Please model this.
Amino acid sequence: MGVIVGPRVIDAGFSLVSVLLAPVAVAAGYPSPAQDYFDGRIDLNEHLIKDVTSTFVVRVTGQSMEGAGISDGDELIVNRALEPKDGSVVVAVLDGELTIKRLRVTSDGVVLQADNPKYPDIRVPALSELTIWGVATTCLHHI
Model:
């Protein structure tokens, strides 16, 4: 179904990691001459965390979002302060159940869309309780 397992808080002052930054892009097609040195460090916090007070990491279970590049076991960085909009990948609470889906707002109502044709979309019934818990901003995909 694409559910999450226990969100983890990113503590203020916590550093994900600072890693060396290569000075050139690496070709995914034909190889290019490589550089033998690195160009300083990059702070992943600056690139991944926009608001530490409202950002969480959640682990994904299931395959319903594989079309969005989100696989079983991946971790998502989720910002609870962002305004969800049509097309956002969201952590939703539907009638007390957590799920990760793409939010679709249509003239017929709200749909929680799976990004895998093997899984059905969830049309949110009018009397259901739906809360958008947060908006996914980054997928930490394991390869």
Q: What stands out?
A: The chain has one helix and ten strands. Confidence is low (pLDDT under 50) at residues 1-6, 8-14. The first helix runs from residue 44 to 48. Strands lie at 3-9, 18-20, 41-43, 55-61, 75-79, 89-94, 97-106, 109-113, 122-123, 130-140.
